Amino acid sequence: MANALPIKRNLALLSAAVAANSCMLHLISGVASISLARVLDVTGLLGLGPAIVLAAGALAAVPAGRAMDRHGRIPVLAAGFGVGAASCGLAALGSARGSALLLLAGLAGVGLANGATLLARTAGGDMYPPERRARGISLVLFGAVWGAILGPAVFGPLLAGRDLTGDALAELWLAGGAFELVGLALVVAVRPDPKVIASRLQPEPAEPAAPAAPIRELLGRPGVVPALLAAQMSLGVMVGVMTLTGSIVVDHFHHEHHDVFPIIGAHFLGMYALVIVVGDLVDRVGRTHALAGGLLLMAVSVSFLLWAQGAHATGAALFGLGLGWNLSFVAASAELADRTEAAERGSLLGFNDLLSGATGAALTLVGGFVLTAAGVAALAVGAIALVVAPALWILGNGATRRRCLHFTNDYLRSAP
């Protein structure tokens, strides 16, 4: 049955669509904070633009996940790419005209679109059995590697030798919209819907399938809360640092504007270049160790910002930050997918993205104030604390579960 399904073709199309979306995310990371700060001309609001994108994405994640469970993965992904293209056009118009209202609408729309398109990983989990689910998710996410290469190749030359004027920013946003249109064309070519493939891969149930469980019931399943916690803090800290990279590099480390995109490119390579290896690693070492290990790697990487100010050193720090996030993100996604049926998967992953996006928006907004008032060192120290604490809790919680399991097994073996 599985051999007759076009799984490889669908994975290739979805991975290519993720690559297109990655280019747009690359743009958000590089100029969203700068775009709004330029238009509003207010200091201390560096994190507002990215926070709007993240908050809008968080609000879209749950309804997008529920819609995926009801109507399939592809209609929701297509709608996300379509909204993303239109919203990039609004952001371009707002930048060119100096209109805060249009730019805010564009950033919010980009966030709504991203809330839907990030759920492409749900489709990857649909097309693989549980023991290889992390690999399926990683194959879809691997497309973002090409976005990390294409982004600097397109956006860097557009800015080379130019100031960040409204017209220059408008050209960048229009290029981002073109990438979203490419993503739209790719996802509509995916057939059959990955949710259909998931239902065909499942063995025939002996009894009628139970209705999808509500979120409050899903939260009580083993492993769900640690996965949600790791996903929240890894994404929150990652985007909090990533979206402020433009200001860190230009305003604090005094590099040129066009240097931002290669550094962001290194970060995106860290996020996705090793994702296939990471997927296999997560399946091999287990979810708990991967969740905590990714968070601790993020802490080590952020610590480089305490002393590294060169472009190459900053790029290396951002690479490690992305790799640590990837490890936690794939492990969390796989764990949440393992704990759900196909009709529940989109809802739980959407709920995870709601929490993660809200955390990321809050940390980005606070991070902008911290960066402006206290500098890069204060931002780095706060970020380190936010990932180390949950990593230690997850490791301790996993050790407690193992001790309880061993005690129960020993008791049952000794019982008469």
Question: Could you explain the architecture of this structure?
Answer:
This protein has helices spanning about 5-40, 50-70, 75-95, 100-115, 120-125, 135-140, 145-160, 165-185, 195-200, 215-220, 225-240, 245-250, 260-270, 275-285, 285-305, 310-340, 340-375, 375-415. It is mainly α. The N and C termini lie far apart (about 45 Å). The chain is built from 18 helices and no strands. It has a single domain, classed as MFS general substrate transporter like domains (Growth Hormone, Chain: A, Up-down Bundle), CATH 1.20.1250.
Q: What is the CA-based Rg, rounded?
A: 21 Å
Query: pLDDT average, as an integer?
Result: 82
Quick one: CATH class? Mainly Alpha
What CATH architecture label applies? Up-down Bundle
The amount of helix comes to over 70%
Structural class: mainly alpha
Compute the separation of the termini in Å: 46 Å
Catalogue the unreliable spans. Answer: 404-413
Give, in order, the helices and strands.
HHHHHHHHHHHHHHHHHH
Strand content: under 5%
Instruction: Please provide the count of β strands.
Output: 0
**In the CATH scheme, what's the topology name?**
Growth Hormone, Chain: A
Q: Count helical runs.
A: 18
Query: How many structural units, i.e. domains?
Result: 1
Shape: globular
Per CATH, the superfamily is MFS general substrate transporter like domains
